[in-house]
Amino acid sequence: MNPKDLRPENILPHRGRMLLIDEILGVDDAGAVTRSVVTESWPFFNGRDAHAIVLIELVAQTAGIHNGWIRDKLHGPAADKKGWIVGIRQARLAVNAVPLGTELIARAKNQMEYEGFRDIYGTVAMGTRIVAEIALQLLRSDATA
Fold it and tell me: Domains in the chain: how many in total?
């Protein structure tokens, strides 16, 4: 399926101010690429900019796009949409805040997958500058059930 036909709200459970992704730029078996623009409704927005910690959530949502795409590919769009428990293994933030209106490109790639566990590496770019490098560990909420 063409990424332009995919909509973040059809894959992620996030709604309202917690849905940070505006557009899915690419998705394949290895990972996903998304585009977002900082708005006044973003979490941690103080009237001028959003605290950089929100970039961790942006990578997690980009990983969620990939995970949801894989789930739909393997089991169809009616598949059970169980959530993921996310742990932050490492986060390097090169900025303290991201100004209102800034376009961000997030990338998330699976580094390892085993029985409902995934190790994810992600980046967030402002223009040509990487402003966040994030390593996440995901556990499917029904992996032990």
Answer: 1
